[in-house]
Specification:
heterodimer; A: about 180 residues; alpha+beta; Arc Repressor Mutant, subunit A; Glutaredoxin; 2 domains; 5-stranded mixed sheet; about 10% strand; disordered C terminus; B: about 450 residues; Ubiquitin-like (UB roll); de novo design (two linked rop proteins)
Chain lengths: ~180, ~450
């Protein structure tokens, strides 16, 4: 089925187009809007963006594959990025990753069996002074201890409805790190 | 540092400092008002030149000189692009400006736009920092409602529009021409230079790309006057002002601090960072300004016996006692970078630290140029072998050989940013690489005591 943005988001696109001298410059902002609505950048989203900005689908696909934050596969409602670069690793980034793998029951790069979490490794997220840290969806969680991290995961677990309807979220191929 | 008056951080910690009414009560926009209503573009550029501000994004190029490269033709528009793609491992300072003092950044942008003749400006923020983008969007809306951004800022006929633009996860977009491609909706691959952005930048127009901190400090420079601001530095007149320093790794109080340009690494670690995290583990090495800057060793002494050597005054002293400036650090064989230091104590194995960073570069190489794309993979392969005990002592020379083959053979400076810290590690800690080649690394986990720390126990 063809993808379409909601009327409110469509209005945002009209506004975004005024921010740049070319239509093409809206490629990243438009992909972001679509991903926020759809959860990931599906082939239908790529068709939509290409059509909306008068670009070829190959060009849009090329943009999507360049950036790590555009998901080329469905992901869980909670995407956990665990920073593994040096500053975090000096303060236990690897321990955080291993704990999350145990706790969520999946390895980095995969989605948890209950479909609520996708765990991904991240390169430096600019939270070095508050290491170790993870990013979950839009939020940074810093100065982590195991206890603090468990509290955050508990809360999200309780808040997130089991995404039983969307079996596709079980796909473990998100991220591709 | 007792006599030092903070400028960049003076509103940090003030409640709701990101709201325009609070920011204005604490002095924001007064300088832009003065600059736009009473000073001409030429005078503004002159003050910034006098401030001798070296770009805060890492390269240390004098911002005033960069602005001087602009020579727009009559039919060309000039654009300002603020580089907020803060992604250099170890660097986390610009984030604090965007969160704590977004209006001061906008104020600096208004003055900069006036000075360089720009009417449109974008802030390119890395995609991960979506909270910063929200904050900036709110600040822009507030400033627009007051008329500071828009058709007639402070009643002056110099329309200025400011927009945010979100990246989507790519370290290379901090390279200014990759950033411009990303802004234009393309893959973030760096462009061949020349032409430089000042001649042909965003949308083929003359463009100035400046770091968040640099642009924010333009407001400080105009407020204090170029010369007075410059003299806040211990390295005036060549490297002026104050700047943000960051500390991460094995110090007691990691974080972002403001101090004059030219403090020493020892002062940064001991006075601002509260000293080493564990009393019984001394400093082993420090990466001074983001992962691309070669590592310093406290037990290595400056060797500059010649009187005309730029570091002669510190001959025989430790590397970490040299003032932190763009030129002094270059003379030391490293780079000042972003002055966000990664501090490593005696528990760290430098082969493992290097392997961690090379994995980063392998992941982030854009893949355009073969030496960088393949070289980054080779670094990781060789270091993986060393760590796993499959290496040989002579692999250390292989690493050096790879480094020498990627440097200077690529479109952008990423390859140097990857190879130079590797060479620095090998130069400073060669024995550890040779040792790993003989025996491998027994435990690739970096520090066991962190497990205890993270579990809330004592280290």
């Amino acid at each position: 089925m063809a993808f379409a943005l909601t009327p409110e988001r469509e209005k945002q696109v009209e506004e975004l187009l005024t921010h740049y001298p070319t239509k093409r410059a809206c490629c990243l902002p438009l992909l972001w809007l679509c991903q926020r609505q759809n959860g990931w950048v599906s082939p239908e989203v790529i068709d939509y963006v290409a059509d909306r900005l008068s670009l070829s689908t190959a060009v849009v696909k090329g943009v999507v594959t360049f950036y790590t934050m555009f998901f080329e596969h469905p992901v869980a409602p909670n995407v956990v990025w665990v920073c593994r670069t040096l500053s975090c690793d000096l303060r236990g980034g690897k321990v955080i990753q291993e704990h999350l793998e145990d706790r969520l029951g999946c390895r980095a790069g995969e989605t948890s069996p209950d479909g609520k979490f996708t765990l991904l490794k991240a390169e430096c997220l600019a939270g070095c002074g508050q290491a170790p840290m993870v990013q979950i969806n839009d939020d940074y969680h810093e100065d982590l201890t195991i206890e603090k991290l468990d509290g955050i995961i508990d809360e999200l677990e309780a808040k997130t409805a089991s995404p039983t309807a969307s079996a596709s979220h079980e796909s473990s191929a998100a991220g591709g790190q | 540092m007792a006599d030092f008056e903070p400028l960049l951080t003076r509103r940090y910690g003030v409640e709701n400092s990101h709201r325009i009414d609070v920011a204005e009560r604490h002095g924001v926009y007064q300088t832009a008002r003065k600059a736009l209503t009473t000073m001409g573009p030429e005078q503004l550029r002159e003050e910034v030149k006098k401030g001798s501000i070296r770009g805060r994004g890492g390269a240390g190029f004098p911002a005033g000189v960069k602005w001087g490269f602009l020579a727009p033709k009559p039919d060309e528009k000039v654009y300002l692009v603020v580089n907020a793609d803060e992604s250099e491992p170890g660097t986390f300072k610009d984030r604090t400006i965007m969160m704590e003092d977004p209006h001061r950044l906008l104020e600096g942008m208004l003055i900069t736009c006036r000075a360089i003749g720009a009417h449109t400006a974008w802030i390119y923020v890395r995609g991960e920092l979506s909270r910063c983008i929200e904050r900036l969007d709110d600040a822009i809306a507030e400033a627009r409602a007051k008329g500071y951004v828009g058709a007639r800022p402070f009643g002056v006929n110099h329309p200025i529009d400011i927009y945010t633009h979100s990246g989507a996860g790519a370290y290379i977009c901090g390279e200014e021409t990759a950033l411009l491609n990303s802004l234009e909706g393309r893959r973030g691959e760096p462009r061949l230079k020349p032409p430089f952005p000042a001649n042909k930048g965003a949308f083929d127009m003359p463009t100035i790309v400046n770091n968040v901190e640099t642009v924010t400090q333009v407001a400080d420079i105009i407020e204090k006057g170029g010369e007075a601001w410059c003299n806040l530095s211990r390295l005036a007149p060549r490297d002026g002002g104050t700047r943000l320093y960051g500390l991460s790794g094995h110090v007691k109080t990691p974080g972002v601090y403001e101090a004059p340009v030219g403090i020493t690494m020892r002062e940064l670690i001991e006075d601002l960072g509260g000293g080493m995290l564990h009393e019984d583990r001394p400093l082993k090495g420090v990466i001074p300004g983001g992962s691309s800057t070669p590592v310093l060793r406290p037990d290595r002494l400056v060797d500059a016996p010649a009187e005309d050597h730029p570091l002669h005054a510190w001959h025989g002293k430790s590397e970490i006692d040299v003032p932190m400036g763009v030129d002094t650090y270059r003379a030391l064989g490293t780079m000042l970078g972003t002055t966000c230091a990664i501090v490593m104590d005696s528990s760290v194995n430098m082969v493992e630290a290097t392997r961690n960073l090379m994995k980063f570069y392998k992941h982030e190489s854009c893949g355009q140029c073969t030496p960088c794309r393949e070289g980054s993979g080779w670094f990781v392969d060789v270091l993986d072998n060393l760590a796993a005990g499959r290496g040989r002592p002579e692999d250390v020379d292989l690493l050096v050989d790879i480094a020498n083959n990627v440097m200077g053979n690529t479109i952008c400076a990423f390859a140097e940013g990857m190879a130079m810290p590797l060479l620095g590690m090998v130069r400073q800690f060669r024995e550890e690489f040779v040792e790993a080649g003989k025996r491998g690394l027994r435990d690739t986990r970096m520090d066991k005591s962190v497990v205890a720390l993270l579990r809330g126990g004592a280290a």
